[in-house]
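Posted in: Structural Biology > Protein-Ligand Complexes

Title: Requesting predicted complex, magnesium ion in pocket

I'd be grateful if someone could produce the 3D structure tokens for the following input. Sequence and ligand are given below.
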Amino acid sequence: MTTTGPIDRVVLTHVQIPFKEPFWIVGGEVAIKDAILVEVESASGVGLGECSPMASLLAGRSGLAETCWEDLATQIVPDLLGRGFADVDEIVAVASGWRASPFAIAGAETALWDLLGQGLHASIAELLVASGLRIDRGIESGLAIGLYASIVELIQAIEVHLSAGYRRVKIPIRPGQDIESVRAVRQHFGDVPLMVDARGTYTSAEIDVFRELDDFDLLMFEQPMAPDDLDGLAALQKAVATPVCLDETATSLDRTAEAIRRGAGRIVNLKLQQLGGLGPAREIHNLCYREGVQCWVGAMPELGIGQAHAIHLATLSNCKYPSDVGPSARWFVDDVTIPLVELSETGTIAVPTRPGLGYLLDPVKLRRYQVRREEFAR
Ligand SMILES: [Mg+2]
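-- Reply #1 --
Done. Output follows.
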């Protein structure tokens, strides 16, 4: 007997929702958020997941919505129909056999956690720690700011959002747009917890930039160099006191273990979409804990279903910094969840305690923003 009972039906819905402002990715900007919502149905309920591709140069074809749809429809969904799941280990085992875009895997894998949680009457946060731990605190939310043409616009953007209560500020940097931006933010906002994300845009020839940034008491330098430039990242980490954070480098357990072994960073950003779901994210979280490396939970960003899964992940004990997970209203003109993801006045987001994910899809919103929908039944 499985906990979930056999999966009878899977529904994929591709939605497009405009960003409020263009979102900076490596290689350009995007104005529309693509997401494929995954509904996995059995006798124990409907599990929800989000495949949230971002078409950046780093993600390549695997970051395209079309590729993800193909992977889900032709490989993952046929493997799910008729299958039931007894526990988390079975989800991890089955998902690890999928040779597909990590975004597509994340969409289906997280939906299975939701379904299993409903079958076991446990929230996903409880499944993650595999005990009856009660989660009665929210997770801390950090403000992430986009790339602006001028420092004045950057400062204005932070000013507009920071009063909402966020626990830290993250600004993008790239060569030529770095030290002066950080100096200006420090002058305007004093000792606000501050970090920078370079998205892999520097080389080891530019370590001096980070030596200067080292004086600004930043929480971390996120992904200063290209994902595979472990030598450059390690040389930088040796040269500065500020911790280097691995984001695009940390795409799998093996790559993360290798990067940590070589001294390429002291903090890891866990992203469900990049890692292919909650199982791999938990495994890397536990590796980091054993290695004395701290974690936090990043976002692509995702719509509400994807962010809700990340909220549960961020309750793990080695997640020591505020998350990029933020309220629905931060990036998108609308969202598809009930309720919307909300920020408290103290900059936290509540962790749902209901079985499974604790968020639902709004059918009206889903219909409003859908560009493609398909039902699969056994
Ligand atoms: Mg990043």
